[in-house]
Fold these 4 entries.
Entry 1:
Amino acid sequence: MKKFLLVVLSLLAVTTFSFASIAQVKTGKTRPLLTKQLMGGLVQPNCKDLAPA
C-alpha cells in the first residue's frame, strides 16, 4: 500500500509540474513586449553600474 501511495504521489507531482510549465509558455506568448525590450528596460538600467567593475 505504501508503494502504491508513493507511485501515485510521484505521478501527481510530475503532472502538476508539467501543467505549470505549459501554463508558463502560454502566458509568455501574450507579453506586450519582446524579450529584448523587456531585458533592456529592466536589466540594463539595474546592471549598467556593474559593467565597469
Entry 2:
Amino acid sequence: MKIKPNIRKTFIALSLLIVVSFTIPAYAADGNHETDNNTTVINYDDIEDLVLENNLRLKSNKYSLDDMEDALDDLEEARDEIREMQREIYSLSGSITAPEGPEGSIANATKASLNVAGGSLGMSLPSTRDVREQIQLAELNFAYSEKQLVSASKELFLLYHQINDSLIQIERNSQLLESKIGKAKISYEYGYVLSSTLDDLESSLKELNNKYDTILHQKDLLLLNFKNLIGVKSSEDIELGNIPELSREFISQIDFESDIKEAIKNSMSIGIRKKELKNADASGKRINNEVKIRKNEIEVELKNQYQLLIQQDNILLLAENNLNILENKLTKGHVQFNVGNITKSNLDSLINEVENQKSKIEIDESNLFKEIEKYKAMVAGMI
C-alpha cells in the first residue's frame, strides 16, 4: 500500500468541513409522519429527532467522520505493512554471515545497508496520534453543530407562530378599517366627511395590505427553511403544532449560582477549545488560562440570558395588565353602546383592541418560552 504524503492535510480538511458546514442550509430528506389527510403535523417535541435523523447537512458531516475513520484504518494498515517489511529486512540482515577476506567486507557492508534501511523505515512509520486527535475534535464540533441546528429549528417553529399572530392582527385591523371606509364613503356622499379623510383611510388600508403581503412572504420562506432543517420535502404539506404550555414557575425555581457551575461543567465550547489547544501542543499553563477566560465569559453570557428571561417575563406581565384594562373598557363600552352613548364603530374599535392585545400576549408568551428554552440549553452545555 502506498502512503499518501498529504493524508494529514486530508484529515484537517475533513475536520474543517465538519466545523463550518452546519451553517449551510440542508435540503429535504424523507422521514416524517403523515396524518389521514396527508398533512404532516410537526410538534415542538418532535423537532430534535427530526433534525438528527433527517437533516442532510448532518448526514454529510457524519459521512465525513466515517471517511476520516476509514482513512485512519488505512493508515494503521500501512503501519502494519511497514513493520512487517522492517522485520523481513532485519531478519535478512541477521542471516548474513561475513566470511574471511574481501567477501567479508562486502557482506558487512550489505548488512550495514540493510540495517540502515530498516531504521529508515522505522522513522517513516506514519503516526496515528495526530489523526486520532483530529477525529476527536471533529466529533466534538459535530456534536455542537447538532445542538445548534436543533436550537435553530425550534426558534423557527416559535417564530412561525409569532408571524401567524401578527398576520391575524393585521387581518383584524384591515377588517375594522374597511368597515370605517365603508361608513366614511356614506358620510362623504352626504358631505359629512372630507375627501382627504377618506383618502387617508384608504391609504392606511393599502399600507396594511402591503404589510400583510410582506409578512406572508416571510412566513412562506420561514416555513421552507424549517422544512429544510427537519428534512421534509419542500413540496410536502406540514402543519406546526401548538407551542408547549409556558411554565413560568421555572423562573422562580432558578438557582443561578448552581446553574453557572452546571453550565461550565457541561460547556461544549470549553471542551472544543481544550481539544484545539491540546492538538496544537499548547502548554498546560496556556490551556488552563484559556479555560479560565472561557469560564468567565460563560458566567457573563448566562447572566445576560437570565436578565433577558426576567425582562421578557416583565413584558408579559405588563401585557396581561394592559389586557385587564382594555377588557374593563370594553365592558363599559358595551354598557355605553346599549344606552346609545357610543356608536357601533366605537364598540368595534374597543373589541379590536382587546383581540389585538390577546395576540400580543401570545407573542410575548412565545418569546418568554424561547428565552427559557435558551437558558435551559445553555445550562445543559450549549454555551
Entry 3:
Amino acid sequence: MSDDDTFYIELDRLGEKAVRERLAKRVYGEKKILLVQHWLSEQASNRQEHKDQQVAARESEAIRLSKQANAISISAVVISAIAILCTFILAYQQNKISRDTYELTATPVITMEYSGSDKIFYIFNKGSAPVTIWGHRVHDNPPKQHSKSGLIPVGTNQYMSLSELENEINLAHLAITKSSYNDSLIIPIEVYVTDIKERQYTAKASIYVRSTDRETIDLGITAEGVIAGGWPKDISQKPPGNPEKIFLKVNKNEIQ
C-alpha cells in the first residue's frame, strides 16, 4: 500500500469536518494539501451523487404513486360507470315489467266526443294498450255488429259518422218521447271493445239530444266509463266474413 493510500485511509478515519479543521490550521504540508483537496473534492462529489440518487428515488416513488392513483381513479370511474349502467338497466327492466303488467291488467280508458261541424262521434283510446272495437248499441235498439274489427292504438281514435247512427238515434229518440215530449233527452250508447288479451269490455256513454217540436237540433256525448264484460250475445269477435283481426299484428308473443 502506498503512502497516499495510507494517508487517504487516515483522512477517512478523521472525517470531513476534522480534515477541514486541520487544513485551516495548516497542519498539512504542501504535498499533503493537494491530497487533502483531492480527497475533499471526492467527498463533495460523493455527497452530490448521494443527493441526486435520493432525488431520483423520490421522483421515481412519486411517479409510481401517481400511476397507482391514476389506476385507482380509472378503476373507480369504470366501477361507477358500471354501477350507473346497472342502475339504468334495472330501472328500465322494472319499468318495463310494471308497464307490461299494467297493460295486461288495467281496464281500458275509452272516451267519446261529438263534433257537430263534422257530424262525427269520436272514440278515443286514452289507456296504456291498444283496444279493438267490435260493435255498439244505442238505447234499447238491437246491438249492431260491425262488419270488421277496428283497431284503436294508444292515443288515437276511431269514429262513427252521424249518418251511421242517425237511424238508431232517431228510433231511440222516438222511443223515449213516445209518451211525453222533453226539450233535452239522454240516450245511452254502448261500444263493445277488447284489449290486447282479447278480454271483453263495454264502454258506456250518454248522447244528449236537444230538440224542438220533436226535431233534433243539437247533439252531445259524455263518456261514463268502461266495465268488464257486458257484451250482448249478438256481438262476437268473429264478424261476418271473418275479417282480419288487425290488433293481432301487435307482437302477441311478448305479452303471453
Entry 4:
Amino acid sequence: MAATEEQRKAHIALAKAIWHQDAGNSVPSDPKARQDAFQLVKKDLMKRARKLEVLLDRLGYEIAPKS
C-alpha cells in the first residue's frame, strides 16, 4: 500500500531527524552539501522511518505534525 502525501512528508521529516542523530557533528553546514549528503542515505533512512512509525503505532503512539 502506497503512503499518502502526508505520511510521506512525515517519513521524510523522521528520516532527516534520524540522519541528524546518526551523523551528529558531521552534517555539512552548507545547505547544498547537506542536501546531497542526505540524498545519499535517504532510501535507507526512509525505510527506518517507516519501520519506526509501525513500531510506534503498535505501542499506541502516533506521529503528528505540529499545528
